[in-house]
Amino acid sequence: MTSKLNISRKAAISAFGRSLGTTAMALAAFATATSPVLAQGANAPLNIPANPQMFGTNDPNVRRATAIVNGEIITGTDVEQRLALIVSANGGKIDGEEKERLRMQVLRNLIDETLQIQEAKAADVPADDGQVDASYERVATQNFGQSADALEKYLARIGSSAASLKRQIRGEIAWQNLLRRNVQPFVNVSEGEVQEAMQRLQASKGTEEYRIGEIFLAATEENKPQVFANAEKIVEQLKQGGSFVAYARQYSEASTAAVGGDLGWIRLAQLPTELATTAASMGPGQLAGPVEIRGGFSILYLIDKRQVLTADPRDALLSLKQISIEFPKGATNEIATKRAAEFAAAVKAIKGCGDAEAQANKIGATVVANDQIKARDLPGALQETLLNLPIGQTTPPFGSIEEGVRVLMLCGRDDPQVNSGPSFDEMMAQIEDDRVNKRAQTYLRDLRRDAVIEYN
């Protein structure tokens, strides 16, 4: 019988690309300069005095929650429904002050979203309803594990709406359509560049490569303390279970925000020195930061690491049999311990995978088999144990009084093939994507600069 192994994943590290819910954090406002002379550089031509006198009142507690962007209204309802998604995904554990900062950040995101939708429409490449509906259904199935109708009811229950989520999807699709029309055709990558990149990759064979997520918050000398404080709050929320992907998508100011901050597989030499030093000491699943770099602060999440063009043992496909017993309801620790000891002794007598079912029947155990388990999908402690296990042997017993006790027997292993690296076309696409992302950041900055925005 082939079925899904019931392995407890409580100790497992969450994969970066999964939808883990959303929490949020607003960036700090610019602080009033305290130094006697304004910082040199890009700000110098503005000729801003060191100690400006304010004429009129400016109450920082009065926040305007709606806006009109080039004649299109963003309502308070739009803001609150988008905010509800974030609050719900964070289990409602957001205090009033934090929620207010978050509300202003949501408004900023909605303004950018509106500009992107407007520009795509003006360029005659809007996201059509079919694209939006198809993406919405994929989100419902892949991220929430339910139908589109069930997702709509869930959104209404938490104070949001399908329309709010679809608007976000529309903005993302419209922006990608626009980049394909106005940016991508003008990005050129020569064959020589690609060949040079592939040669560098081959020369680095065997060296370590890191897959890193980054949240970048821009800062100036004047507002550095405030931005750093907000970055620390983001780290605290992430450590409490917040989604790195969600934070990066909403608040990172790097071009990788659209892909959840994922930098892809890179070598440390490609990072700024400060980030490379930090990443070198990190393990998969570890969070670090905020790290100060030129222009701001970065928060890093190490998704995984591997050796360049070298097979990773964790990609091995394992054939496993799970042998398990359950404890009777209300079993005491003493009863469970005794039963577990008897189970462990019986398991040692099993002579390989072919004998598992017969011996399991004698002790009232259940056997479940699966021939397609990738080692990296198992909890870390089990990965190491199974990869060092001879065929026909079992792991030590593990479990709990509630879940019962079980062992995994290794019945086969298909080791991964050596990765030859990206093809010529794949390498060219990687370089093109990087350049498109950088130009996209400039494109959006220009849209903000030229926009007519009225706050209500």
Rounded Rg: 27 Å
Find the CATH superfamily of the largest domain.
Porin chaperone SurA, peptide-binding domain
Provide the succession of SSEs: EEHHHHHHEHHEHEEEHHEHEEHE
CATH topology of the largest domain: Triger factor/SurA peptide-binding fold
List keywords for this structure.
456 residues; alpha+beta; Triger factor/SurA peptide-binding fold; Chitinase A, domain 3; 3 domains; 4-stranded antiparallel sheet; 13 helices; globular; disordered N terminus
Account of the protein in words:
There is one protein chain. This protein is of the alpha+beta class and 456 residues long. It folds into three domains: 61-182, Triger factor/SurA peptide-binding fold (Orthogonal Bundle); 207-307, Chitinase A, domain 3 (Roll), CATH 3.10.50.40; 313-414, Roll (Chitinase A, domain 3). Helices cover 42% and strands 17% of the residues. The strands form three sheets. The chain has a four-stranded antiparallel sheet. Strands 8-7-10-9 form a four-stranded antiparallel sheet. Strand 1 (67-69) and strand 2 form a beta hairpin. The radius of gyration is 27 Å and the shape is globular.
Briefly say what this structure is.
42% of the residues lie in helices and 17% in strands. With 456 residues, it is an alpha+beta fold.
